[in-house]
Sequence to fold (130 residues):
Amino acid sequence: MKFHLLISLTFFYLVNAVSAFSQETQQTAPSGGFESLLPMFLIMFVVLYFFMIRPEKKKQNERMEMLKNIKKGDKVLTAAGILGTVGNIKENTVMIKIGENSIVEFTKSAITSVINEKEKTVDKSEKEKK
Fold:
């Protein structure tokens, strides 16, 4: 939430700075509109790339790496909110055991996260400190 506020404030100040700069240049030497808008578009693209596009690509690459590293016995959380243990792994699907006699087949893209035992012990120790 704070991140989006930071981005919007940055855009606001950049647009105001560029518009003030373009007004100064228009007063001294009136010229075409595209030449004065070009720096603003370049600055906006750079800001968009570093604050929105690059982090999304990084998250997507981490997710693809997580899906590649799923192995038998991992505890996973699906997009439907189902917790289970990975059984058989196929090319695009995963068999997940969710109960005593319940095995469900999901596509790999339905898996949102892998829950490791290490993460659980870290979470428990953090809760005990609070």
Remarks:
- Strands lie at 75-78, 83-89, 93-97, 103-107, 111-115.
